[in-house]
Structure formats: structure tokens, C-alpha cells
## 1
Amino acid sequence: MKIDTPMPEALADTASFLTIHEQDQLWRAAIIMADSRGLLLRLTAMFGRRIDALRNSISQTGERFGGTTWTQLTQRVQEAVEDTLWASYNYATFGLEAVPHIVRPKRPRNNVLHRLATTASGVASGFVGLPGVLFDIPFTTTTILRSIAQVARDSGEDLTAEDTRRACLEVLAFGGPGGKDDDTEIGYWATRLGVNHLTVNLLIRSAASRFGLVLSEKFLAQAVPMAGAITGGALNYAFTEYYQNMAQVHFCLRALERRTGEPAAVRQCFEGMVRAARERRRISRHPGKAVPMAFLPRA
């Protein structure tokens, strides 16, 4: 994601404990947090009504089945994701060598090959139907988890450390891109606070529960007639990009918290930057409005 908006001058005081480079890193993470749901929202808006109608139809299939069909679908997906996470937990970083500091990229890379791979899987599963879904769940989950691990590596994390692998799972536990912007940020901090003391077993269950619900919604979207393959591919691409972006935010914050030793200050500064990033987005939608002095670039 290209970031071409300078950090507002008004944020300089709250970010004064950071170096200029660290301020730029945090500002970039704030813009990613504010903008990461754009494509997903457009896709959801396109298929949302049909998804809701399909879910209601499933829930009204008759007294014999009642509303359990949706619950069973969600449970089946969650179990499949949980099994995949257990199988991938020790192998998500296999073959990923640590990047020496002198050749480490300036910022984590969004691996486009992972997005293309999950897109192809989504298209194939949309054509094939349910048998394709049974393949798509483990493939997409494993690919996204590995992509998260690559972001962690590019951010300077030690891939051999148990804490790093837990942090990769935490990204999936943040849930999907649904809801309002504020809900995304609140959910991020709530999840971080909640998973700190979880065992790996509970963390995997938590991640499977939230990520499984996201995938359940995706599979319902793929069930829309004449749109399964297109929807499956587009949503897989968007979901992969979303979790890559959230991984960049997560590991940027972890790095700054370690370097500064002031996690509360990093959080306060980041929250202010996210609010400014959202305001910048609203201003861009209404270019005729005057730009507040707070959003003039720094000298």
C-alpha cells in the first residue's frame, strides 16, 4: 500500500518520544488500519443483501432443519480451520530464513503471490462447489498464515521464537474486516489484551472461531447463483490482502513497543494517528472543503 500523505503537524507532540523514522512507520500503520477495509466493503456491499437473503432462506428451510443449517456450516468451517491451524502451527515458518538486517526491506512486503494463490483457490472452489470448499479452507488458511509469517520476518521478528508464532496466530484472531472503522480498532486492542494469557490451544480455538466465521460468510457469498467463482476469487484476494495489512500493523506496533519500552504511549499515539488518517480519508471524499490546519504537512 502506497502512503503519500504526510503526518499532520498536530501529532508531532504526542509522537515526540519516537524518532522521525519511527513516527513515519507508525503513521503508515495508522493509514493501513484506516484504509484496509476499502475493497472488502465494496465487495460486501455488492453481495451483502444476497448473502443475507441466502442465510435467511437457510434458516427457514423448514421445521425439521430450522435455523441449525447456518450454525452447522459455521461449526464445520471452524473445525476445519482449527485442524488446519494445528497442522500449520509448527510449519508456517518452514523454509523462511531470517532476513539479515543489512538486506531487510524498509517495510514489510505484501506478497502478491500469496494473494494470487488464494484467488485461484477461490475461483476453483467457486466452480467446483462444496468439494472445492473442502480444499479451499485449509489451503487459504495456511497460505494466509504463511503470508503473515513473512510479514513478521520482514519486520525483524525471530521466527524461531514461540512468541512470534503466537503473534502470527493473533492476527487471525483479530477477526474479519466487517463492522465500522472504530469497531476494527477496538477489536484489535481487545483481542490483543484478551489473547496475551491464552495457551496455544485456546489461542488456536479463538483464531479458528473468528476466522472461521469470516470464511463462512465468504462461502455463503460464493453460493450466490452465477457469481460463485468470481466472488470466491475476489473475496480470497481481498481477505488475504486484509490480513497482510493487519499483520503489518501488528508487527509494527510490537516492534515500536519493544524499542521504546512504552506500550501505553505507543498505543495513545497510534490511536491519535488512526483518527487523523480517517479524517484525511473523509477530506479526500469532499475535496471542496477546506483542509484543517492540523493536516498541513510538517516543515
## 2
Amino acid sequence: MANINILDTVILSSYGDLDETLRAIKDENIKTSKIEIDTLDGVMSIPYFLFEDKIKEDTKSIYDAMKKIIKQLTDKLSPLQKKETALIIGTSQIDLNIINSIKATIYEQKEYKSQKLSIDTYAKDISKNLGLNGYTMTIATACTSSANAILEAKNLIQNDVFKYVVVLGIEIFSTIMSNGFSSMKLLSCSTQKPFDKNRDGLVLGEALAGVLIGLNKSLWSLEGGYSNCNSLNITSASENGDDFREVIEIALESLNLKPNDITALKTHSTSTLANDLAEINAISKVFCKDIVFTALKPYFGHTLGACGLLELVVFMAAIDDGFIPKTINSKEYIMNHYKPLSEDLKCKSGLFMLNYFGFGGNNVSLIIKKKTL
């Protein structure tokens, strides 16, 4: 069976492009903004990883940002190759019409006239505008949206439906989303502290991230993965970790891999009480104590529907640069025998598992590989 490869990547994070983001991680130059949100207890100021150049919560700004990333990924394709290219979007902001209508009628208390627009509306228009196949799909499974989109892209190419697939993850500041997380007491007032006894929640972030998947030769391959939907309830994971353990084990089994075949893990690590405990318990039930694992969210926040792609691309870039980033902000760990990296680790190739465990019990483990030069 031919390898499904990751051919090109583009991101926009709170630091800028991929080079700027990787530089901020290497220098540990972490910068957050402050925003104010309305809560049941009044106005609350919270940290937020915002774009340097704001993308507004309006249709034109989002459309233009999506088109720019997709164009960068497809510019090198010939007209014929573009006709064989599908487009899949992963986001938690699937229906802008709903978000805008709630914002206008509830928060601004004014009349709202629906424009009948959604992220998928933009995807179809952009696909046509850039000369792509016209086939689009939008996946909204909370924090696993763009991770599931990558798995679907692999399925389409593996079954010879398309030659190429562009996968895009998008998440911008949302008043509704921020207020929702605040109401569930999941937001930190300071920093994310993955797997730390004193963790107090997540910090949200904005991101646009895209990859081009295809059969062309590349050092990076998308080996496979697994997605399931099984959890304690819609907003919380079972703390014993069995829901997460299941998806990790089946992802390995689907590729005839053993836990010790994995070079390192990229964890989901939201720094919330239940999620981190469930994840560390799952890791301890599958892997030996010497497993290397790290967390990326403290660098640029939890980017929700875009995190599947953003964290994939940044992790790949770090390996290309020769290291696995350390986990910052954490000091007292919830499990002493399983601790994330406290120092950058030299690494240039290997087999890596990337985990995403989201709301609604939707959980994804991806496995990627970089060949040795």
C-alpha cells in the first residue's frame, strides 16, 4: 500500500507564521493578550493567545484568511492536480450564522438578519475560486475536528477518490466560545500547567493551520490513527483514562505497532482537572515509564478545532529542527513516574503519536513518521 504523505504545511498562530512560532517556542518567548468577557459573575479578564493582526468575527475576514492559507498550499499544484484536490475543514465554528445570531440577539439585543453563511459555504466558494475539485467537507467534533479531518483525508486518498486533499483547521476568537468555557469553570486566569497538581484550566488561542496530503514523496508520512466517540459525559472524561486508553491501543493495533515502537507522544493536555488526569492514567496503562511525552498548548493555547493541525505542524517543524519541545509551566506532577519533558530533547526522526481528546467524548490518536535521512 502506498504511503499517504504530508507534502506541505502552513500555519498562522498568535506569533505569526511557522518560522515565527517555532522561534518563540525555542526562545520560550511566550506572549498572551488579555481580553474581557461577560460571565454570570460579571466581567472577567482572561489571558488569550490572539493573532497579532486581528481576524474579525465577520464573514470577509474569515473568508480571506481561509483562502490565503489554502492558496499557499495549492499554488505549486498544476491545474490538473488541482482538479484532483479535495478540501476538508476542521473547526468548532462550523455555523457562523448561529454564532452571529446569538451574539446579536442575546448579547447586543438587536434585530438580526440571517446571511445563511457557514465555514462550509466559504470552503465551497474557495474551492471553486482556486480551481480545486469542488468537493468539500466540514468536520466539527470540538477539539478533535481537524485531527478527524486528517484521518478522513487519508481515507479519501487511500481509496483512490482523490489524489490530493487540503486539510484546514480554523479557530478565531469567539465571544460565545469563551463565555461557554468560562461558564464551565475551565479557563485559567494565568497559564496552562499540563499534568501539574496546581493546574487550573486552559488558555484559549487562535489559529489557522493547513496541510496538503498526497502520494508524492515526502520525509513525513501519515501512517494512520483511530477515532472513537466514548466518554463519561459531553463535557468531561472518565478520570480512570479507559476511554483514552482504548483509542490509543486501537490506533497502535491498526498499524501492527507495539507501544515501545513509538518514539514520543504529543499529548492533548488541556490542563483541566479531569482531562489531564484521564490522559496521564491512559498513558500509564499503555506505555512504559520511559515513554517520552510533551505538551504544546502552553506555548500557543488551546486552539480547539484547529489544534489537531496546528500541533501536528508545529511538532513536525520542531523535529525537522532537531528537537522535541519541553513542557513548560509545570512543576509538581500528578503522577511522579510519568512526567512530561522538562528539557528539550534532541530528535530528528521517528514514529510519533499525537493525541486529541475532546468534548462529546470524541477522541483521536494520529500516528506520523519521519524517515531518517
## 3
Amino acid sequence: MEHNFYLDKLFGLKENFSVKIISGLRGVGKTTLLKNFAASLQAEGEKVIFIDCEENPTLKTFQQLYEFVDTKTAELDKFYLLIDEIDRVDEWEKAINALFVGAPAEIYVTGTSQKLAEKISELLPENCDVLKMSPLSFADYEKISLAKNELENYLHFGAMPAVLDADKNFAPKILRGLAYEIIFDLVEKNSVSDAGLFRMLIKFLARNVGYSVSVNEFFKSLDEYTFYKTKNFISVVLDSGLFIKVPRFDIKANNHLVGGEKFYCADNGILSGLAKVDEKFFIENAVCNELLRRGFEVSTGRFGTMHINFMATKGDKKIFVQVFLPNGLISARRITRPLRALPDDCEKILISMERIKNPGGVQCMTLKEFLAKG
């Protein structure tokens, strides 16, 4: 279903005078999408050149990529150039720039880096279209899931293609393998200098999902040489989309705060493959990703001395969200105190696994209701 959605998007970009960039986490389905698109084009009688940079070890530099394409297409009047995993090629954007300007081609590329579009835009301003792929939303997952407990499965196993049809007894093993495959891919593509330390950083972020953390604290015990050698690790992680950094926002002062950011993982299943996480943070992680999927900019909120899980902003629209998991130590009324302190014209939502009594002035939703809104 999701692939059909993205396939329709790709066909909607045909004939645009642009480079089409498909980005997303490893394992999210970019290669499958590109192959389906190639098959559809060929069925329409179009000439298609499909290149898998991961499978072709001879394509390491932009010169090699350009010459390879030029040799294959010299006699073609028009063709579709589909390149998978292009960020494995050094300075790939130079080859794409030359092909876009000089070849009669419709160009589509995939990669994990979120900077693909940025690099193309520097060379071809206003001539790139970006299609960002993400794991299934719960609304789409629910339509295709055969599981009886679809919310529980979604919450703990996520919605990456590898686990959609997997038996729940095997899903944890699949997810651990996928998590390490993603890490290995990032190490290889980014020539990470210390794979062991890089893996430790990712596990540190996974264990601390939902907590305010300082990445500098992670590195503080390193010697000066190792620190400078590894200081770009967090940039690599964020650029891949594996984790999202959520800043803090002072609601009263109306400005962002420095430090104490929170990190959330792009998919609950990958998160569970990386570390053991408390149930509340699985819920928080799912809520954060859903807000991002709906196009909101997400921050954590501070209102005086009180804290709000999420402040989501899109244009003039703002919503404030608290996540509540009853544990006998804290009541719904207490957890919603920061929300009730906000002006009455704010949209305020309390999300919990089970329906709870409305504490007044706050909209109460179950997690399933919130996620199913799509």
C-alpha cells in the first residue's frame, strides 16, 4: 500500500525539469520502490537505465559513474536514469549535475543521507524534487496488518517492511539484525573512524530516548584525540534520519533553549532492536514520529518549572501534548497540570493507552485514536 502511494508520487514527478531524490533510512523500501518504478516505465515502453551502486564495486567516483552512464546511453535519444544508493559514490553530485545538464535523461536517485537534496540544490537551484520515505503510519499499518493486537505490534515492532509479515516470535531477531545493518551501512558510507565507539553512541541514544541528554557527556571521558576524531558522529546519525533531535522550547519566553535536547528514533521497531526501553518511551517515540509525519515542527516544552512532552507547530497551528502511562504514582490530573496552566485557546491533548476520565480543559485521546487519525 505504502509503495503504491510512493509510486504514484514518482509518476506525478515525471516530466518535471528536475532531479528526483528519494531519501530514507536503510530498509525502508527505497530500492523496492525504484525497481517497481523501473518495471512500470519499461511496461510503458520507456528506455530505463538502472544502476545499483551498492552492487557495482567499479562505481566509486563521480568520474566512473559519469563514464559508465555515458557509455551505456550514447546512442539514446531519451532515457530514464535510475540510480540506487548513490551516496556510495564519492562526489556523486558532480556526475548528476553533468548528466542533468548534458544528457536527455529523467534522473531519479536514492540514498540514506538527508543532505542529498541540499547537495543537488547547490548545483541545480530549483531543479530538484524530494520524496522522503518513512516507515508506515499506524493508519496505513492498520489497514494491512493481520495481527490481532495491531497497536501492540506497531508499538514494539514498528513498521519497517522487513517485519510487516513476520511472526512476532521472530520479529525481535529481525529487528536486531536490521539495526546492526543500518549501523554497518552508516559506518561504511561515512568512513567512520571508530566503528565500536560509533555503535556505542547509537546505543546510548537508544537507551536514553525521551530523556534530556547531553551528547558531550557521552564523549567527556574520551581523550582529546579521540574526541576530535569522533565529534562528527552525531551529525552522521542525524543526517541518516535514524534519530531525530528534538529541541527544548521555553513557552513563556517564546524562544528555544540551548542544551538538554531529547532524541527519538525513526521507528519503534529499530529502537527495540537497539535497546530495552520503558513502555512510556515507546509511546512517546510513536507520538513524536506521528507529529513529524503530519508535518509539524516538534519541540519539548517548558512552562515555568513544568514540562510538556511535545509542542508541535505547523504555520499558525500549535498543539501541546502530554503522554500518560498510569503507574499508581501519578494521576492524570497531575500530569496535565502543565497543559491546564496554558491559555484556554491552546489545543491541549493528553494521550494514554486506555481511556481515562477527562481532568478538565484537556482533550483526552487513546494512543490508538491519536495514531489512527493519520
